[in-house]
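Retro notes (design track)

What went well: tokenization of the new backbones is finally stable.
What didn't: we kept losing track of which sequence belonged to which structure.
Fix going forward: every design gets posted as structure first, then sequence, in one message. First example under the new rule, 406 residues:
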């Protein structure tokens, strides 16, 4: 075989759509041809279809090889062992694409949801994305039995594991390649519970999960054994609950990510200054709106409380690179301490101003308040950095995965 020159080597696709299959000789060819045609004709970014045959005993693998030969941007992988999670893990880790997706072979999810699924990952906005049949705006056609089982399972996840996502089982998901390489070694299940475990660990690590409401139609010829899958999922929930109660399985991951990408001091100061400027403008607007309705100290306090909460949320995420709900209450407590400092400084400034100039105009009041706020800003930064960033970095919870550019 003649080696390809550097100009002939195919460029890596932006998106790799994996189709895991087991004994699907009847539905594989029409599904892959439909998916490949959709990506070719309607999808605005480069994409590839990867068929992963896991342990089929019929002609599925032979058909996958034929499709790989006949269709451009289609590849096929054969695994001897059965297991959807194992198939996805192998294909995702072997892929050179920036974003890794998968869809069930029955294509129950409308393919028009594929771009909304991968767009937040391509832009770097989110780490994972999932199709959701339970999100507002989803349109679902399926039997009452599967509907009840699905809703009960996802309710169980919310109650037992405290998850925030709505639909763990929809066979329509995507993940950034760098996130997959970080998370997949931590996922123990390689069968049906793989999706749930991946999402739970991602959420516990503070990663952002984007949900897309989908149009979904149940496949009457589905090969999924609903009862057996439900029992495996229940066992998985019990096992994962025990695992999360023990030593933190994500501690090492958090530590590696924080060392690789903790925001530097210069960037923190620049981001803090930008957020502070926006917060100051919002504070000034609120104060001027409230001043005709309330005494100066009251208008000042209300404006400070509102902007202090928003400021803490923004600094937590953008200045100090902290995601997730872990430690959120403590971080807001630190923000309120900073707020109290600003409140004392500004009210003392107002007291001195009104003592010296009882007839001071509202503009003069605002100028004095802004000057006092500037004095408190340096102390606020130092306090928030110590409470949110330095403390979180010591325990390995600063999360900011480097983003690849499309």
């Amino acid at each position: 075989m003649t080696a390809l020159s550097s100009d002939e080597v195919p460029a890596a696709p932006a998106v790799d759509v994996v189709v895991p299959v087991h004994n699907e000789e009847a539905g594989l060819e029409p599904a892959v041809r439909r998916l490949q045609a959709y990506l070719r004709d309607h999808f605005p970014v480069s994409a590839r279809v990867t068929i992963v045959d896991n342990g089929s005993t019929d002609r599925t693998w032979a058909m996958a090889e034929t499709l790989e030969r006949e269709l451009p941007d289609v590849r096929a992988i054969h695994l001897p062992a059965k297991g959807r999670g194992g198939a996805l893990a192998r294909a995702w880790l072997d892929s050179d694409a920036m974003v890794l997706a998968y869809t069930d072979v029955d294509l129950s999810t409308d393919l028009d949801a594929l771009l909304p699924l991968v767009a937040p990952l391509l832009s770097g906005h989110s780490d994972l994305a999932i199709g959701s049949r339970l999100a507002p705006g989803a349109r679902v056609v399926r039997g009452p039995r599967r509907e009840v089982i699905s809703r009960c399972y996802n309710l169980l996840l919310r109650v037992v594991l405290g998850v925030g996502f709505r639909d763990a089982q929809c066979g329509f998901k995507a993940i950034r390649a760098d996130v997959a390489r970080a998370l997949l070694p931590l996922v123990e299940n390689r069968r049906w519970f793989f999706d749930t475990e991946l999402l739970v660990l991602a959420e516990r690590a503070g990663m952002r999960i984007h949900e897309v409401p989908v149009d979904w139609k149940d496949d009457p010829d589905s090969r999924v054994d609903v009862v057996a899958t439900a029992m495996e999922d229940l066992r998985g929930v019990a096992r994962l609950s025990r695992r999360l109660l023990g030593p933190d399985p994500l501690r090492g991951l958090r530590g590696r990510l924080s060392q690789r990408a903790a925001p530097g001091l210069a960037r923190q100061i620049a981001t803090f200054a930008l957020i502070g400027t926006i917060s100051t403008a919002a504070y000034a607007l609120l104060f001027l709106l409230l001043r005709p309705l309330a005494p100066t100290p009251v208008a000042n306090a209300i404006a400070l409380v509102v902007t202090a909460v928003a400021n803490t949320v923004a600094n937590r995420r953008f200045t100090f690179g902290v995601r997730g709900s872990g430690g959120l209450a403590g971080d807001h407590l630190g923000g309120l301490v900073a707020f109290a400092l600003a409140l004392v400084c500004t009210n003392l400034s107002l007291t001195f101003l009104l003592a010296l100039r009882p007839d001071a105009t509202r503009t003069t009041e605002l100028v004095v308040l802004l000057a006092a706020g500037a004095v408190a800003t340096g102390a606020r930064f130092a306090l928030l950095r110590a409470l949110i960033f330095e403390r979180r970095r010591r325990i390995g919870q600063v999360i900011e995965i480097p983003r690849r550019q499309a």
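Added context from the reviewer: The two ends are 32 Å apart (CA to CA).
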